[in-house]
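Issue 218. Parser rejects a valid record. Input:
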Amino acid sequence: MSAFRAMVKPNKGKLRGTAARAPFDAAMSSIIAPQGVKYREGRIGEISGWWCDPSDALPGAAILHLHGGWFNVGSAAGYRYLVGHIARSAGATAFIPDYRLAPEYPFPAAIEDAASNLRGLAERGIHRIAVTGDSAGGNLALSLLSLVAAEPATAVRPAGVVVLSPITDLAMTGSSWQTRAEADPYFVREQAEGLIRAYLNGHDANDPAASPLYGNLIGLPPIRVQVGDDEVLLDDSLRFVERAVAAGVDARLDVWEGMPHGFLGGIGQMQAAASALSSIGEFLSSRLARIPRSPS
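Output the parser choked on:
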């Protein structure tokens, strides 16, 4: 981790705007690819993306993964290896949509696309669906749950949800923005404020549809959250899970000591990433009625 921190330090706070899309995708594409997973382009409804197909995926089940990138960057192609690991560990096919990005398409375009994908999977006859997401994608996954809970008679209810370092509070009121400012190797407040501003486009950051921390959490499906202890987003996870448990939700938080944002991308290089992936796979496979598999 010391060597990693020294490598990324010169770029701290520099992920800004659309110019960051190509380098961000290049970094995500450098994740070690899992064995036994095939990839193909596809489309759910009107939204294109990538399928990650483990060799013996369970029929009738799927994972919908909403990628990270602070709502402004990231792509399904760039995320396919990371999500391939999740799919293989869970023993289930996963779809990564290329939801619309800010600033071209601000709130609520991304959450609308996520909802469309969830419906689209069900229309294909896939009724055991888990939702996963990282960072901004974790925000979208949790916001999607609130939409589902508000329409119990008609909405597709996910069997379970896993989010990695979710952004739950776009008002940025968590104390870890101060307490982890030095420890976090990636983000600074001013950088995040600009990315959030581009996404919200004047919308209220305290709207529960934009910040799931402020939503009605009663009735949500089981949720598992993974976060590093050295993240400015730590409090976003801590406070969300605390509220979810108080609302009676089966929610659990794993905090990984010394780990930064996105540490799961270190699979094949860090034991913490392998351990977190194993935990994710066990949970997802249990929710999708599948025997868990070991990480590659």
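Fixed in the parser; the record now loads. The chain has one domain: 2-287.
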